[in-house]
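Methods: holo model generation. Sequences were used as deposited, without trimming of termini or removal of tags, and paired with ligand SMILES retrieved from the corresponding compound records. Each pair was processed once, and we did not select among multiple samples. The sequence and adenosine-5'-triphosphate SMILES for this entry were:
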Amino acid sequence: MSVEELQQAKKAVDFSRESLESVLKRRFFYAPAFELYGGVSGLYDYGPPGCAFQANIVDVWRKHFVLEEDMLEVDCTMLTPYEVLKTSGHVDKFSDWMCKDPKTGEIFRADHLVEEVLEARLKGDKEARGLASDANADADTDAEKKKRKKKVKEIKAVKLEDAVVKEYEEILAKIDGYSGPELGELMVKYEIGNPVSGDKLEPPRAFNLMFETAIGPSGQYKGYLRPETAQGQFLNFNKLLEFNNGKTPFASASIGKSFRNEISPRSGLLRVREFLMAEIEHFVDPTNKSHKRFPDVKDIKLRFLPRDVQQAGSTVPVETTVGEAVASKLVDNETLGYFIARIYQFLIKIGVDPERLRFRQHMANEMAHYAADCWDAELHTSYGWIECVGCADRSAYDLTVHANKTKEKLVVREALETPIEVTKWEATLVKKLFGPKFRKDAPKVEARLLALTQEELESYSAELKKDGKITLKVEGMEGEVEVDDKMVSIEKVTNTEHIREFTPNVIEPSFGIGRIIYAIFEHSFWSRPEDTARAIISFPPLVAPTKVLLVPLLNNPELAKITAQVSQTLRKEQIPFKVDESGVSIGKRYARNDELGTPFGITIDFDSVTDGSITLRERDSTKQVRGSVADIIKAIRDVTYQGVSWEEGTKNLAPFNTQAETD
Ligand SMILES: Nc1ncnc2c1ncn2[C@@H]1O[C@H](COP(=O)(O)OP(=O)(O)OP(=O)(O)O)[C@@H](O)[C@H]1O
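and the model returned the structure below.
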């Protein structure tokens, strides 16, 4: 079945989240963690097929990015000291806005609440009741579902005026960009309270999402579970640069767990408190953000949702090539454009439906102040458009703040072909005068003076000329210290430089593996119109948890012998397979593997005993071909790992017709 045919077949049957969830639960793709103890919202365990699927996705990620792009992979600790996350800005700013119902004590995430209520109002009475059942479907555990079901009241439809509809649509298009106080104003203006009781909520306040802990037995050394893998990569920058022989551009990469104490983690795997992230930090010269492999991807056509389109209250994307997007400055630079295209290729390879993928640009107030540009790969699911990969140009922010804090240079030194004259402020110290005045603190004062920025040097030079002394704060010393013009002079000096020193900018693609996995579940889930009770998950063979189901026609020693031989060959080839020797019909055996996403089935029958041939069945089309064990396994290998189509991979095998797959 071609990709197009499959998309058509999927469209012919209505998607039901309930059916998908029932399959995922029954076949133990994943399940709420600690269920025996009632479960904890936002924590999930992956079962065997979920685990294998995740491992395969990570494997493709590693090949697609780390190997293909020659990235430097690191594995850094999850426990992170307070100092690091204070410097990065997470301690002060890594928060969401929450509001509390003073009567019930319930907590809501402010932006999600505004979004949910306005969407419900827009959808009217019918959908408003749909929201109630949605909210219920989002609950993590059965106990929670029951509790919510009791609580959710019917929301009455109110016909809205056209102008109000427009206002709501505009707000929803910009929902990610509001600050806490702005969300508070919206809640007052549009009378948004507890969606169940309608009661007023307290104004939004910031809630830091990091899990705090103490490192070591004294409890004195504060730390956090990391909320992203990026900081470890920044802190190892100098080692990575040296490993790369001092050359940029280069990228580091890391795959590992991150932790966020989400305010209300519903929506299954989409919003959890512990999740697998795969992140890349691409370090590039700020004056040259071209990418040498950009020509390879420039013709890829993508759906972009630019900032100004959202600002105008629209969600209609612009379809254009990456090359055009960069040339027109819609996307800030080539390297950012290159990664957007590579993210697209990766997502399509692992089973994302291209029709349900768009790249949304961050609004100006949604983006961190230092970021040059930022695009999210959003995947459409029954929960709406969900950010699954963030791709940001973070400028030189991270390296600069860590360098300033640690006084360790995090820079690239590049030999210049033609030396250049550089004029800059320099401080010259008369060191022998520092010891007598500052005693043991002398080195601290000296280091502080030598680390002054150009702006500070300029202003201190004026102060020194005017007052004959300067005063400044030195870390680890009480109050301010005074240094006079006998101890330090600050002058503008012109030097010939043979080396250019710069802090690289960082382009950061950041993947949430769980969100991608869930979106693929939805994008791949369907059933045949003639048999809607049986679900199929059409994972691409490359990432399917198991590649082959082996089914002997009957429980018979001769067939069992061939099954064992084929198993041994598959094992040797390292092709993941399962054997189903149960007595149920072939159709039933295939059906239960269709819902596990197993792309191929091998049937062993009595002809196999006489001529050694076996049958190969393809999951989506149910087409079958017949051939020798060696030829069939070669076809499986080619289609699964070499990206060969089913038609191409099986063209030399004989078509095989059998009765319909019913039981
Ligand atoms: N709570 C979560 N559960 C699962 N995945 C997450 C969660 N938070 C973030 N991610 C994933 O990590 C990626 C990068 O994180 P980033 O900080 O950009 O997300 P975010 O903007 O905070 O997401 P959101 O606004 O949806 O909370 C996201 O694109 C997403 O795939």
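The chain has four domains: 60-74+228-397+506-514, 95-208, 418-499, 546-655.
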